[in-house]
Structure formats: structure tokens, C-alpha cells
């Protein structure tokens, strides 16, 4: 029977990150996963690469920074506004144009999700200089949620990464440093106090809560992008941050488990989409 209930307007999120044509990362992960959360996903590609830089021998790179101001002007002319912004892999010249878009194209109460995608396993991604983390810190200032892994957190704080042998005091101190950069909520990924479990520390600035999953035997490229996309989509669907983080981690684990060893450049997150949609139904 048709319902007389008015249909609620879906939230509209703008993701700003590269399109790596091949490689299952950045925008090609955010678009399907944010959509699977039931949230409209608009995309501003910051650059187009033939493939990502994490293991392929070479790539093309088309910087789209020069287009950003014109796109913002067009949106302002038409009054196009967004309920949320989600940034991932971006380069230094894009930070000011992104801050301008987040300031001028925000619907009332718009949320900012910043995944400072620039490093993993103790190292900056190829192509980023040692001074880049201090530039990325400018995006973290004023963010509602930042989602660094342990390596990115260390670089944002100007420290050498510590990836093992730490305890809760270290996590508390790291999270406090990240809040001091100006981020309201911190979601620190890749946290582990026990070799069998890997998880996330979620802080709203007054308390830290943890979520852990069994550690899987293999690590995979693009899992940070899967995590951040699901987290942002789930928060926009109304989940509290710890629940959104737990769901995002479950989608990452299911994606890794569905990925054959021969598939080295990303994870088969497509196979976890039915589970994600069910959990948010
Ligand atoms: O997944 C992060 C990422 C995004 N975009 C590009 C990358 C990487 C990581 O290597 O190279 C182009």
C-alpha cells in the first residue's frame, strides 16, 4: 500500500580525492560505498591517475587543481550545497581550494570528514615530501572527524611512527595531540595491544573507546579508503561514531576475506556491499 509519509531528503556528501582509474582506492571506492550506505555521493576529483602509486611500477598524473576554483564558483552561482565533505588523498596545492569549498558550499550543520591519506606502515606514500604532513594538518583543523592510521597520526604530530610495543597511555597521548590540531573527533586506526587483535580508538575529546576485530593474516591496499567511506556514510545515516567505526572495520575485514591472494592492488569490497546495505537497512 502506498504510504502517505513524506520521503526524507537523502544526505549529500561531497568526496574530494583522486580518481585512480585502476586500483580500487579513493573515489572509485568512496562512490560505491557511500552510495551503499544510502547517502548521495558527489565527487570532485582532485587528480586523475592511470592507477594508484602503491605498488604499480609507474603512473600518469593529471592534476585537476586548476579546475577547483571554477567548480566552486559554479556551485556558488547555483546555490549547490553539501551536508558533508569527505577528503582523502590530496596534494598540497589543493588544500586551500578544498578549505574554500568546505567553507562556502556547506549546508547548515555540514560535517567534515578528513582522512589524511598520505602514509602507512611507517612511511609516507611515494610523491609526498617530509613537509607534507604539516600541510595536511591544515585540513584536520576544523574537521568533525579525522581518520588517521598510526603512521599518519605520528607524521601529523611531527614524530617518528611507533607501530608496536605501545599501550593505552601512548594512544591517549597521541589522540590528545590530534585533538590539539583542531579536530573534534579522532578515529585512530591500526591500533593493537595484542598481536591477535587489530582495532580502532574513537575519541570525542572527553573519552576514548576501542573496537577490535581479529587480526587477519594479510594486509591489503585501499583498506583505509574502504574504512573512511563506510564510516562517513554510516555517520550520515545516524550511527554513533563507535558503531560507525565498528561497521567500517567489519566491512574492511569482510572485503579482505573476500579477496584472493592474486588480487594484490586492492580489496574486493564489492563483495561486502550486500552485508553493508543489510546492516544499515
Ligand atoms: O589509498 C590511498 C591512495 C589513494 N590514491 C592514490 C594512492 C594511494 C595510496 O597509495 O596512490 C593515488
Describe what this molecule looks like in 3D.
The longest helix is centred in the last third of the chain and has 17 residues, at 241-257. The protein contains 9 helices and 11 strands. It has a single domain, classed as Ribokinase (UDP-N-acetylmuramoyl-L-alanine:D-glutamate ligase). The chain is 36% helix and 25% strand. The chain has helices at residues 27-36, 65-78, 95-104, 132-140, 150-156, 168-180, 223-236, 241-257, 273-280; strands at 12-22, 40-51, 61-63, 82-87, 106-114, 119-120, 123-124, 145-146, 185-194, 197-203, 208-214. It is globular. The chain has a 9-stranded mixed beta sheet, with helices on both faces. The chain has a two-stranded antiparallel ribbon with strand order 6-7. It starts with 11 loop residues before the first strand and ends with a helix. The chain is α/β, with parallel strands linked by helices and 281 residues long. The structure holds 3-hydroxy-5-(hydroxymethyl)-2-methylisonicotinaldehyde (PXL).
Topology:
Elements: E1 12-22, H1 27-36, E2 40-51, E3 61-63, H2 65-78, E4 82-87, H3 95-104, E5 106-114, E6 119-120, E7 123-124, H4 132-140, E8 145-146, H5 150-156, H6 168-180, E9 185-194, E10 197-203, E11 208-214, H7 223-236, H8 241-257, H9 273-280
Helix pairs in contact: 1-7, 2-3, 7-8
Bound molecules: 3-hydroxy-5-(hydroxymethyl)-2-methylisonicotinaldehyde.
The site of 3-hydroxy-5-(hydroxymethyl)-2-methylisonicotinaldehyde has 14 residues, from β1 and α7.
End-to-end distance: 20 Å
Strand line-up of the largest beta sheet: 3-2-1-4-5-8-9-10-11
- Order of H and E elements: EHEEHEHEEEHEHHEEEHHH
Q: What is the CATH homologous superfamily assignment? A: Ribokinase
DSSP helix fraction: 25-40%
- Per DSSP, what share of the residues sits in E-state strands of 2 or more residues? 25-35%
* Mean pLDDT across every amino acid position: 97
- Rounded to an integer in angstroms, the radius of gyration calculated over CA atoms is 18 Å
Task: Using the alpha-carbon principal axes, give the shape.
Answer: globular
Based on the structure given, which CATH architecture is correct? 3-Layer(aba) Sandwich
Question: Tally of extended strands?
Answer: 11
Into how many domains do the coordinates divide? 1
Largest sheet composition? 9 strands, mixed
Question: Helix/strand-derived class?
Answer: alpha/beta
Bound molecules: 3-hydroxy-5-(hydroxymethyl)-2-methylisonicotinaldehyde
Tally of DSSP helical segments: 9
Amino acid at each position: 500500500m502506498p504510504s502517505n509519509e513524506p520521503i526524507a531528503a537523502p544526505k549529500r556528501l561531497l568526496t574530494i580525492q583522486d580518481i585512480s582509474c585502476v586500483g580500487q582506492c579513493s573515489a572509485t571506492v568512496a562512490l560505491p560505498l557511500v552510495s551503499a550506505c544510502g547517502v548521495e555521493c558527489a565527487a570532485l576529483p582532485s587528480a586523475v591517475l592511470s592507477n594508484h602509486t602503491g605498488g604499480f611500477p609507474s603512473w600518469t598524473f593529471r592534476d585537476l587543481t586548476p579546475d577547483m576554483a571554477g567548480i566552486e564558483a559554479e556551485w556558488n552561482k547555483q546555490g549547490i550545497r553539501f551536508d558533508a565533505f569527505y577528503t582523502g588523498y590530496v596534494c598540497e596545492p589543493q588544500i586551500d581550494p578544498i578549505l574554500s569549498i568546505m567553507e562556502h558550499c556547506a549546508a547548515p550543520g555540514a560535517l567534515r570528514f578528513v582522512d589524511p591519506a598520505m602514509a602507512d606502515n611507517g612511511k609516507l606514500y611515494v610523491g609526498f615530501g617530509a613537509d607534507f604532513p604539516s600541510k595536511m594538518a591544515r585540513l584536520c583543523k576544523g574537521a568533525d572527524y579525522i581518520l588517521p592510521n598510526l603512521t599518519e597520526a605520528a607524521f601529523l604530530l611531527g614524530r617518528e611512527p611507533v607501530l608496536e610495543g605501545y599501550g593505552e597511555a601512548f594512544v591517549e597521548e597521541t589522540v590528545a595531540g590530534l585533538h590539539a590540531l583542531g579536530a573534534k573527533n579522532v578515529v585512530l586506526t591500526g591500533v593493537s595491544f595484542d598481536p591477535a587483535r587489530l582495532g580502532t580508538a574513537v575519541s570525542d575529546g572527553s573519552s576514548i573507546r576501542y573496537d577490535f576485530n581479529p587480526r587477519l593474516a594479510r594486509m591489503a591496499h585501499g583498506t583505509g579508503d574502504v574504512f573512511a567511506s563506510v564510516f562517513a556514510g554510516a555517520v550520515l545515516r545516524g550511527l554513533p561514531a563507535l558503531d560507525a567505526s565498528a561497521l567500517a572495520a567489519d566491512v574492511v575485514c569482510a572485503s579482505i576475506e573476500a579477496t584472493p591472494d592474486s588480487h594484490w592492488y586492492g580489496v574486493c569490497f564489492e563483495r561486502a556491499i550486500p552485508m553493508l546495505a543489510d546492516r544499515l537497512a
